[in-house]
Amino acid sequence: MNRAFASADRAAISVTCIDKTGLDDALSHLPPDQASWARTTGFAAGLGEACLLPTTEGGIARVLLGRGTPETRARKRFALGAALAKLPEGTYRLDPGLEAGEEREAALGWLLTGYRFTRYKDKPALKAGLVAPDSVEPAMLETIAAGEWLTRDLINTPAADMGPDQLEHAVRALAEPFGAPVSVITGDDLLAQNFPMIHAVGRAAARAPRLIEMTWGDAGPQVTLVGKGVCFDTGGLNLKPGSSMALMKKDMGGAATVLGLARMIMGAGMRLRLRVLIPAVENAVSGASFRPGDVLTARNGLTVEINNTDAEGRLVLADALSLATEAETDLLICMATLTGAARVAVGPDIAPFYTDDDGFAGALSGAALRVGDPVWRMPFHEPYETMIEPGIADLDNAPSGGFAGSITAALFLRRFAKSAPRFAHFDIYGWQPADAPARPKGGVGQAARAIFEALPEVLK
Ligand code: BES
Ligand code: MN
Ligand code: ZN
Residue 388: which of 372, 366, 403, 374 has the closest Cα? Predict the structure, then answer.
């Protein structure tokens, strides 16, 4: 895996990026033999299209890389970076001329394309090295990439090797080099310490449920991240059909993504106090399973009627959010692969988020555009509050009918985050369904890079 940019002292092959509409002009500035080679080989400067210009000795004199048009660029993130990563063995350097944002995206795209999931099978690393462009801070991009890789590795690891216990170990491994304290409440201790819903969801599994906590930093605003850590979601007694269960190793995608974000924050040495809370469970089937019709009492005293054991994420998150709001927190962020409805609404690319804080929403939306990590704000639509209020308890975990499934889930979570001054919840998918530039098929972080970029403005 390529974890770093090539040293700036290395001899490097120049890469000239060319706009499709400016092709003739760009070629006219090249030596005549190079220009004719580009024409002979049919180079059209399409987005991500590369043309290798040879030296007389058979080496690579220069690379022409197509920037396409504004339209094709809008359709594809990270195309330049992915194209750089596919170049033959060698070290490359971008010629000046790209806009700063595009240069950063190309550099980060090259880094992220270098990700490999090699736990069960070796995969060849990139052959093309890249010297970081002058406009970027290489260490910062490497930190961002390291966070994203952590997220991908955690999601890609199958449930057999990424149960609540291994997720705990992953948090400890992340925390150790940063000197971040970790504490964990496991099994029946969850009952004794009043986390009834984490316990109820996780108690049927052979691997004990737990609440994992990591803290870091001793000055600055308090930021609390809560991530859904359902290591496998069978649906419980409301068992999922096989096709819906197939990908449920990724149901700890929220945990994986907040841990990736934590990795970025700690790696960058941001001035803030961080608290990460992960309810880690397996939603399994056994004689100990919680049941449809059961009424659970949450940590904060609200009663919840279970109408579907497959709506388990909001239950474990509710107890973690309650704990989060018992202490002072300037910003509370929750990330979860919470509903199929969110994926139906916005597909796998976009992270829908909910917040009552217009400042957070604005800062995040701008940051998301800048760093190529798309998000979209969804409404906490108050009139739907009645949908989550059943007859015999305060709350219903799975309103019948399923209208606005992502919104009702978000409203449910907000009931447990009421006292937080700023709360945002992300209903992410955490999975890239097919190879795309800088995002191979498999686990993927969503919104973490955007949040990381927005934090300085949000916490100002
Ligand atoms: N983990 C799932 C949500 C999910 C499914 C996310 C597929 C991404 C892809 C969650 O626990 C769940 O099963 N939610 C139910 C809720 C329903 C029963 C109210 C859903 O969305 O169907
Ligand atoms: Mn479920
Ligand atoms: Zn789930």
Answer: 403
